[in-house]
Every structure is written in structure tokens, then in C-alpha cells.
């Protein structure tokens, strides 16, 4: 299957045509300019999330192995904040992914670094499993920011009110959100993501969120710098048309949307976002990227 | 105390000066054009909300009596949806207010009428106390809209997800919200209002809410029509700078802000909203309105 994409980076949109390379077709136009690094979303790209362990997405383990064998630099960039990074890594390894911790970029270490750097004391509204990692500052000190993560059932009316009141008494309210997604797929159904609650508190308090995680350019740039690759040479592969695809494009990368994870056909055509390519899954994206690599 | 207001209705703002009349001062400029009808917010203007019964605001019962004795038409317009209208009326009467049910305009009867008129089946995310009144349509029929009220503790993650999923499967998603407030004062502290959750679902689903209640012009106009008064001849007195003051002004009325209820001094000066007058309480607003009536 082929795809037609409008690159929305420059002032005048450029229409591109990408053809499948998997079955020996012509290289997609979106790959004419060489790819020297790849960023991969995790949930919905490497595995499907569920109440228990989740299930691996067929072909994705092999695709990651092929990237590594080809020498193509890659990093994992996730907004997953329902679980500590080490636990997530263990889960991915249990699916067969051979990954090192340094290859994974998550908002949790990034926000801990920010809190220390700016000597902020957070009021936390996060998942109970990651609260420990995010406790920064002396116990009993007044909060100087609110940190929102994928709190899931912790997003109660009482807890959202506490975060709201904490912001309302801060001399300079700061709302830091670990991602800005609308929803994700968990246990075969869509559920609300942290961005929805960030939006709610922004409206309640008249503040703007600071995003740590996708689609923040600072977050993408950290992973790009770690690979030593420029944005224009990189591609982000994800299942979130806003955080992954639009986020990557705004950062100067190419953005590829997979039809796994939270993807639904009603997403396309999107009124404002046009992925550089839409593929069935990670395996197809990697096929195209590596086929193009051979030709560049 | 005097106040200076910028009327933001026309294309070029008009600066007004209002002086107190309570102590025999000059009539406020905002009252130069005659007032022929008054709309009153309830919570934060007639009484302060609390976990138990609430407490009457000093001077407000007498102020309402004075309005009635003077022959000045008035109506109560509330976004209160945590309690059935009859229960709210009983509470107000227990404080000493002499009111008839027809004088009270609340979103609950308004939305029930809309649901019947448009043959909509609602997915409800409302307070348990008002669920019974809002159940419309045959049991088991698929929902064709989501109705959001002041659900308070019913605003759990699970319930917000259910409302989100209901919207996501509707061929033409309709999100109806009973008000669009940011927060209100309850039990001596601020708490999140229904507008915050409407905003959250708007962002999650990419839809726009339809507001039944303040600040919807249709809702204000219903009360104005009932008094037989035009918007330009009316004033709305409330403690919510957006729903009451800005809502009234956008509708063509004058909007007076009281320093009771959810009022906090940090609200003023507001970056975009300038009340026609700011008063200590309803008693002061009624003093000014009736003093001006005598002079017009």
C-alpha cells in the first residue's frame, strides 16, 4: 500500500508520495533525504498495553534487532509514567527486546533533573508506582509547582482539587505535565491521557503547562543529541498523531504514524496534521528506512 | 469606595466611573441608563455553600425583599446542579428568602426540555442527587449526547473515561455541559466546577461543548424574556467574573461582581473582563440599583 503525505514544516506545504519498499517497490519520497537516526515510541509501537503484562506487537522485536544490526542509531522516547523506567525496561526485555537503559528516554528522569536544577518542590498528581521517584525537596516544604503524570485512578475529584488549590496559592504557579497526550490504548480500550488533565488545570487556574516529555522539542532534542543526529536527519515512529507525529514535525524531524496502538482509521485525514508516512506497524517502517539506507 | 469600569461590549471600550450611592454619594455612571430588571446568582450571592446546609450572606435576604417591595422585576439564575431545584428552593426559603419556583432558572429543567425536544438520549456524568431528573430516553438506547453537571466526587477517572468513550463512538458527538465555570466556593474553599471537565473532554475528543446555563445567552435570555425586559435594561449580579459578569456583558446586560462567594482580590484587575461595578455584597448592589431607580 502506498501513502500520500503533505509535509507541513515549511511555509508552503510540499506534497510527497511514498511507495512501499517492502515488496521491492520504489523508495518513498519521504526517504529521499537520508535518515541517520530513528526515535521509537514504546506503547502501541513495541507492545500493546493491558491490565496485566501487555502483548508484544508482531514483528516489532525483529524490527528493532534489524535497526541495531544495520548500525542505524535509535532511541526509545516514551511518555509512559505509570511505571518506573526500570520496570518498563524489564517488561520490554521479557518480550525479547535487547535494550540498554541509556537508550530509553522517559519524562521521569527528565523532570527529576528539572526539579533539582530549579530547586522546585513538587505537589505530585502521579501514579502511585512512580511517586517515590518523584519526591524531591524537604518534607513539609510548601509546593512550588504541580507535577502531573499518568495518574490513572489517582485522577479523582479530590486529588484534582488538591492540585488546583496548590496552584491557586503559589505566588508564581507552575504546572509541569509529563506529556500532553489526549488518550492512549490500554486493555484494548482508549483511556484518557495526562494532557486532558493538564488542559483542565490550565483552564481552572489560567496558567499554561510546561511539558516534560513528548511533544516538547527539548525532550526530543535530548534523544537526538544523544545519537549525535540532527532533527532533519531523523524520523520519529509512533501511534500518537499529536505527540509523536506533529511533535516530531514541529521539531524538524519526519513523523511516521503506525496503524497499531491507539490508531483508529477515523484519525485520517486529520484536519491539521499530515504524517510523512503511515505504515501498518513498526516492521513496515523499519523495512522502508533500511531499504532507503541501502540506496543513500 | 468607588470603582472604575471599562464596558467591553462595543467595538471601542467606554470607560465608566461608578461612585457609591449607599452613603448618599453620586449615582454610579453605570446606572445612568435605567435598570428595569435584575438577575441574581444564588450561590455566593444569596448564601455561602458548605458541606452541610450553607450560611446566608448577611443583608441578602433584606436586599431581595427590598427589590420585591420596590416593584423591580428580578429572577434567580443559577448553575447549581448538585441538588434538585426544589431542594435548593427549600434551602433558600429556610434562610428566609421568599421566592416562588417560577422565579428560579436552573440548567436542569432547561436541559431536560432540550433532551426531549431533540430526542436525545444522554450519557450522564452528573451529581447522584440529580440523576433521576435527568434520565431521559428509553433504557438501553445508545447515548446520543453526554450531559455534564457538577458531578463532584462522581468526576472519577473511571467516570470521565466512560463519558469520553461514549463521545468517541457517537456518529455526531454532542457534549452538553450544565454551566462552564472554572471553580466555586464550597465549605470555605475553592473547588473545581463543571467547565473544567467540559474543557478536558473537549480536548480529548476534539469537540466543542454546548452550554446549558450561564454564560449561554439563550439561558440569560429565557430569564430576561420571563421578566419582559431587554438585555440593555438589565443587570446581572454574581460572584463569577466569567459566567456572571462576562456572560451578562456578552449578552448585552450590565454585569456586577460581588466580593462574596468565590471572590478573591487577586481576580482584579482581570486581563480581559471589567465588571460594570464591583460591590461588597448583594445589599450594596441593591442599594445602588434602587437609589438610581428613584432618580430615573
TrEMBL record, chains A, B:
Keyword Metal-binding: yes
Record EC number: 3.6.1.1
Keywords assigned: Cytoplasm, Hydrolase, Magnesium, Metal-binding, Nucleus
One cellular component term from this protein's GO annotations in UniProt: nucleus
Compartment(s) of residence: Cytoplasm; Nucleus
GO terms for MF: inorganic diphosphate phosphatase activity; metal ion binding; phosphatase activity
Main location: cytoplasm
Catalytic activity: diphosphate + H2O = 2 phosphate + H(+)
Cofactor(s) listed in the protein's UniProt record: Mg(2+)
Highest taxon, organism lineage: Eukaryota
Family: Belongs to the HAD-like hydrolase superfamily.
Function: Phosphatase that hydrolyzes imidodiphosphate, 3-phosphohistidine and 6-phospholysine. Has broad substrate specificity and can also hydrolyze inorganic diphosphate, but with lower efficiency.
PANTHER family assigned: 4-NITROPHENYLPHOSPHATASE-RELATED, PHOSPHOLYSINE PHOSPHOHISTIDINE INORGANIC PYROPHOSPHATE PHOSPHATASE
Descriptive protein name: Phospholysine phosphohistidine inorganic pyrophosphate phosphatase
Organism of provenance: Petrolisthes cinctipes
